């Protein structure tokens, strides 16, 4: 015959809950506070890094735009070609083909065709 017939009969003594003293409860609380402060600090540092990354990229864009503003620009009129514009505006002693190549690079032109009304940036 079975010695223990039910689940309760296996454990003759009742299960006692652990007693939490005031000292261990405050220590547990301080660990949670430390973790929370650490997470908050990490979030703060991350957000600061993201903000500084965006401001530095904006500053570099501003410097690029001021450099482009400092360069001369030309508005393309009907019948104008890159060759004619380059002939009028190239520095003396510079090869016109190299000047046209520079114009195409600065203005991100893949072909030599230009349209009236376009604003072209002239290289120095």
Automatic annotation (TrEMBL):
Concerning CDD domains, the annotation shows: LysM (cd00118)
- Domain of life the protein comes from: Bacteria
Residues of the LysM domain: 72-122
Give the residues annotated as coiled coil: none
Checking Pfam families in the record gives:
LysM (PF01476)
Under which name does UniProt file this protein?
LysM domain-containing protein
């Amino acid at each position: 015959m079975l010695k223990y017939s039910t689940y309760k009969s296996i454990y003759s003594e009742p299960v006692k809950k652990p007693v939490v003293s005031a000292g261990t409860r405050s220590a547990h609380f301080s660990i949670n506070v430390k973790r929370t402060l650490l997470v908050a600090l990490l979030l703060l540092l991350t957000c600061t890094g993201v903000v500084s990354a965006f401001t530095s990229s904006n500053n570099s864009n501003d410097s690029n735009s001021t450099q482009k503003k400092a360069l001369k620009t030309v508005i393309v009129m009907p019948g104008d070609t890159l060759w004619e514009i380059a002939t009028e505006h190239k520095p003396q002693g510079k090869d016109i083909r190299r000047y046209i190549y520079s114009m195409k690079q600065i203005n991100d032109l893949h072909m030599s065709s230009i349209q009236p009304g376009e604003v072209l940036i002239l290289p120095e």
